[in-house]
Specification:
By secondary structure, the chain is of the alpha/beta class. It is built from 14 helices and 17 strands. It has helices spanning 3-13, 46-49, 58-70, 81-94, 105-124, 143-147, 152-155, 173-179, 203-216, 267-271, 287-302, 305-326, 349-357, 380-395, and strands spanning 25-29, 32-35, 40-43, 98-102, 130-134, 165-168, 184-190, 192-193, 199-200, 219-223, 247-250, 261-265, 330-336, 339-344, 360-361, 363-364, 369-372. The strands form four sheets. It has a seven-stranded mixed β-sheet, sandwiched between helices. Strand 2 (32-35) and strand 3 (40-43) form a beta hairpin. Helix 4 packs across helix 11 (287-302). It binds pyridoxal-5'-phosphate (PLP). Residues 104-106, 109, 138-140, 190, 194-195, 223, 225-226, 251-252 line the site of pyridoxal-5'-phosphate.
Length: 397
């Protein structure tokens, strides 16, 4: 069957929740993906900041194959070695104390919300606590995660949301203060906003929010689903300023393609929140998923992934800054490490389509921003190739 036929079949069989690009991807190698016709694409999307280690990584693949031959799934009623090892490693790299494994980012956010509500409930026995989230945030598509997502477009048709959510502005501490009440149980934000247009939280905002949380016994929840796992040059983006959350959520690159997520908390939070019977999952942290987390964390260390991000992040910034200087339609660059955004003075859909034709996969963040979230093993020549293709696209305007 040819690619066009597959796409027609897809349009008949799949629910129409995505405007997909008109290619069927078939296989990957290093930082490249190939479609069914064998066309090669340089991948600056990485499955939306997921495939950090590059495609067809032998060690990663072998670890998964070995686990498949042992056992794929048991149940959280029993212990399994991969999950124990993964939790220990994740504690070590995050400095957090306790881990709950989920199957996705949204589920990790759900768990964080439940933990925060339980924490507040144990203090006063009330069930009217509030969470402050940020405008332009993105936390996932399930009802709880959607309720804290600061984009009315995603929420509108699905009202009512879970109650008692207020929205403040990232990097505007006064807007947080305006929303704090004696019912506030948590303040939640992405350390670097992804979907909303690549906006890093700044140091003073993080410190001020942290101090407020400590003063009022409010939990700080940081969403590191996209910006975590080395992407900004730190294992988790908050580590740059040392502003440690009470609860942290991770996913995306955590499993490098195997669907996993996690919410983690400090011991103090854990002692006063979710307990036996409060939360559960059939698949979360099953042996196969946990084997993925283990090999990902091993390979991050073995391959010095974060060192590469630090070096290539600087090079990517320089490369993108040149584009800002050269083209009137490119108005700004923002980001950290290998999580960068180029803001345009127009919608970027057409540019992304042209790039696809020329063999470069890009993804937007909102309508006017191109987001650059390549595999973390990217090299200078890949960045040069990306810039050359992007220039060719921009020249056609
Ligand atoms: C992708 C993402 C989510 C949702 O993760 P899913 O695995 O798609 O449910 C939540 N928060 C942030 C910051 C994300 O980038």
């Amino acid at each position: 069957m040819d690619m066009k036929q597959y796409i027609e079949d897809a349009e008949q069989a799949l629910l129409h929740t995505y405007n997909r690009y008109q290619i069927v991807l078939d296989k990957g190698e290093d930082v490249y993906l190939y479609d069914l016709e064998g066309k090669k694409y340089l991948d600056f999307c990485a499955g939306i900041a997921v495939f950090a280690l590059g495609y067809h990584n032998d060690k990663y693949n072998d670890a998964l194959k070995a686990q498949i031959d042992k056992v794929i799934h048991t149940s959280n009623y029993y212990y399994n070695v991969p999950a124990i090892e993964a939790a220990k490693k994740l504690k070590k790299v995050s400095g957090m104390d306790r881990v709950f494994f989920t199957n996705s980012g949204a589920e990790a956010v759900e768990g964080a919300i439940k933990a925060a509500r339980k924490y507040a409930y144990l203090k006063d026995g009330c069930t009217d606590h509030e969470i402050i989230a940020m405008e332009h945030s993105f936390h996932g598509r399930t009802m709880g995660a959607l309720s804290v997502t600061g984009n009315p477009k995603y929420r509108e048709a699905f009202e009512p949301m879970i109650g008692n959510i207020r929205f403040a502005k990232l990097n505007d501490f006064d807007s947080v203060l305006e929303n704090v009440t004696d019912k506030t149980c948590a303040i939640l934000f992405e350390t670097v906003q992804g979907e909303g247009g690549i906006y890093p939280a700044d140091e003073s905002f993080m410190r001020q929010v942290k101090a407020l949380c400590e003063e009022k016994d409010i939990l700080l929840i940081l969403d590191e689903i996209q910006c975590g796992m080395g992407r900004t040059g730190y294992m988790f983006a908050w580590q740059k300023y040392g502003v440690k959350p009470d609860i942290m959520v991770a996913a995306k690159a955590l499993g490098c393609g195997v669907p996993v997520g996690a919410f983690l908390m400090t011991e103090k939070t854990a002692q006063h929140s979710l307990t036996s019977g409060d939360h559960g999952t059939t698949y979360g942290g099953n042996p196969l998923a946990a084997a993925a987390i283990n090999i990902v964390l091993d390979l991050f260390e073995e391959n010095h992934i974060i060192d590469n991000v630090k070096e290539m992040g600087v090079y990517l910034e320089k490369t993108l800054d040149k584009l800002v200087a050269e083209y009137d339609c490119v108005v700004a660059r923002r980001g950290a490490g290998l999580m960068q955004g180029l803001a345009f003075n127009r919608p970027v859909g057409e540019i992304i389509n042209k790039a696809l034709d020329k063999g470069l996969l890009l993804v937007s963040a909102g309508t006017d921003v191109i987001r650059f979230v390549p595999p973390l093993i990217i090299r200078k020549d890949n960045i040069d190739d990306m810039a050359a293709i992007l220039r060719a696209c921009l020249a056609e305007f």
